[in-house]
Amino acid sequence: MSELPLAAIERIIRKGSGLRVSDDAAKELAQYLEDDGVRISQQAALFSKHAGRKTVNIDDIKLVLKNK
């Protein structure tokens, strides 16, 4: 089960499509976004550790996204 609020996910889908959204569609996208967010965070943490930091910063996230 995703931790992302389904109402926000539904708004994202409606914004992109202009259509109504089923609960199942919103739940599926929320799970995908959460899983992808976790993978991005894990990679960003590796960059942060490599740089000798204990804090993930915006540059770590941008580096992951650039190489995605």
Mean pLDDT: 97
What is the count of DSSP helices, taking H or I runs of 4+ residues?
3
Low-confidence stretches: none
**Gross morphology:** elongated
The secondary structure category is: mainly alpha
* CATH architectural designation: Orthogonal Bundle
The secondary-structure element order is HHH
CATH superfamily: Histone, subunit A
Give helix % range.
over 70%
Structure in words:
By secondary structure, the protein is mainly alpha-helical. It has a single domain, classed as Histone, subunit A (Orthogonal Bundle). It is 72% helix and 0% strand. The protein has 3 helices and no strands. The chain starts with 5 loop residues before the first helix and ends with a helix. The relative contact order is 0.12. The mean pLDDT is 97.
Q: Layout of helices and strands, plus pairs?
A:
Blueprint: H1 6-17, H2 23-50, H3 58-66
Helix pairs in contact: 1-2, 2-3
List keywords for this structure.
single chain, 68 residues, mainly alpha, Histone, subunit A, 3 helices, elongated
Quick summary of this structure?
The protein is an all-alpha fold. Helix content is 72%, strand content 0%.
